[in-house]
Amino acid sequence: MAAFLSFHCHSLPLSSETPLVKSSSSTTTTTVSAALSATESAATTAKLGNINNPIEIETYTCLTLLEECNTMSELKQIHAQMLRNGLFFDEFAAAKIVSFSALEDSGSLDYALLVFTRIPNPTIFTCNSMIRGFTNKNLPKKALHFYEHMITHDLFPDRFTFPSLFKSCGSLDEGRMLHCHCTKFGFSCDCYVQNTLMKMYASCGCLISARKVFDKMENKNIVSWATMIGAYAEWDQPIEALKVFERMEIENVRPNEISLVNVLTACARARDLEVAKRVHGIIEDLGIGYHLVLMTALMDVYCKCGCVSLAREIFDELPDKNLYCWNIMIKGYVEDSEYEAALLLFREMQLKGVKGDKVTMVSLLLSCTHLGALELGKWLHMHIEKMDIAVDVALGTALVDMYAKCGCIESALRVFQEMRERDVMTWTALIVGLAMTGQGETALDFFHEMQMSGLKPDAITFVGVLAACSHAGLVDEGISHFNSMRNVYGIKPSIEHFGCMVDILGRAGEIAKAEELIKEMPMAPDIFVLGGLLGACRIHGDLEAAERTAKRLLELDSERGGTYVLLSNIYSSLGKWEEAKAIRDLMVKRKIKKPPGCSLIEIEGIVYEFTRGDLTNPHSSKIYEMLDDMICRLKHAGYVPDKSEVLFDLDEEEKENAISLHSEKLAIAFGLISTSPGTPIRVVKNLRVCGDCHTATKFISKVYNREIIVRDRNRFHHFKDGYCSCKDFW
DNA sequence: GTAGGGTTAG
């Protein structure tokens, strides 16, 4: 207690000093004094008359007016009256003045405090009003000081004192001391007090204490259950939350909306679809009518559990949607990789006149990033500026990432430079972006700058750094960063880092060293590590290592089409047609399919998708005309189709046709006819670019004098004047 | 009492 009372104490006289104005008589009528506030509302004037034309007021009228009072101006006039007629010295009436000033929205805490100091013998009721006032107006320190002073003046708390005090607790220490007081004064078995006590422990993050209070409660009400469930949900212990809910069901406690919202929050965190569906049933069984928050929480669980269409059904039936609803639904689509749907929903949101916030923007930018939709991304950036949405670290990072992954590294850099605050993620996004565009050296410069700025790189930053080394062919730097990761930053290399190292060594032709590293790794290699090695074997034509690696890869995942294709391509590129055919036959025998290649191109804000030999585009006939013209002009410039990567057993002419119909060629042809000369063409591909398309695109960039930026599964190819930024390594 | 966002290569 002594420690608790050691706060610095402001002077808060609970004195019996002479009030400012003393009653001069005990008459029951008087006139409105000249001390009235100058600002009078029309309503007050009607009730009380104005300053120059006072009317007489009786005490009982005063009390009635006090009940109906709406503004401070009215209150001050009534207060003045009460001072004249002596009513102020009535305990109940004075308490009313304090409680109005302290608790009403239109009130004034300063005034309440001033009045309080003039009350000769304040009661605990008045003190509680003050404490509640301080708490409600978010002045927790003042609430606690007031309480402290109150008890030193022998005014003792009642059961209404503690709930506000618990709400004003700033630390667990304060909370524990108040808990002691509460027990000492004998209120620790009051249900309301116990609920707020639980809430206090929960908001201090002390769930064990909250649970102790909960377990000790003899008379739990629905608020107790809801609070306990909410506490666990909030502090990311959803399983515990659901266990409490289960007990609540066993004890046949009828849930209310709030308790169900908390249960759903726990379901969302635990990804527990089953309980969520049960709650959905309960909502219907209990006949809880339409309840926006409850429906929103339910939508969120469905989204998080991958049932986006169920969420959408609820969403469509909501008569009034707030920003929560829109953001949850948009995020749901993004998480479900339905990026177009997310963007479409945003259009709908705009048509309804609902403004998005920064969370909405992050989700939408993420969609653009995945789709490679630079124009839409740019538009969103403008929209963010137009709508005055503050670009904070997360939104800025999303912008940097979007620009970088849409192949516009200059804009990514510009956003990065303009950001006021950057954290590890921001730097990492830029480093990875630079690495993907083949600007490995610049990426490493930024990595250096990041370290200079005092930020500590994390494991993900190092993935970017090593990728940069790999793309730039910087073997020694790669090894040195790999070592510093452990030695300087104490980050244990994970399989991702080993994968990058295998890639660095493999690209440099150090296949044996790469194989050695895989042997020494503390973990078993996964398909990505071995896939990287197999890719390196392809580049360097190392057949033996390729066969070894492919064998291990097929042991790990015999369903993976890419492995068969890569091995078959390696055979055919070395002229080993028999072996190549054997692999392809094996694929047919095992009924293994390669995922279909698909290319996206954005024209005037619309994303068009092409698959091999696609005829679904409305401009197909023009596209194929262009394609013929293109191939013809390329051949004229020296292009020779490379048919070694054709999977099917076709004759030579068919092979040539098969590769000329690759989705990226179609997308580029569409880009050429749909944009004005000189405009860069940007294509996003879901797989790696094939060797022939890579060669062809180099020729296109020269023949048609266009920059072509192709984002494939792993990186960017920036084609210009017949060259590619990947330096033919990918 | 409902969301709360951004960085991982191959």
Automatic annotation (TrEMBL):
GO terms for molecular function: RNA binding; zinc ion binding. Residues 638-730 form the DYW domain. Keywords: Repeat. Belongs to the PPR family. PCMP-H subfamily. The keyword Ubl conjugation does not apply. PPR repeats lie at residues 123-157, 221-255, 322-356, 392-422, 423-457. SUPFAM superfamilies: TPR-like. It comes from the Eukaryota. This is Pentatricopeptide repeat. GO terms for biological process: RNA modification. Pfam families: DYW_deaminase, E_motif, PPR, PPR_2. Gene3D superfamilies: Tetratricopeptide repeat domain.
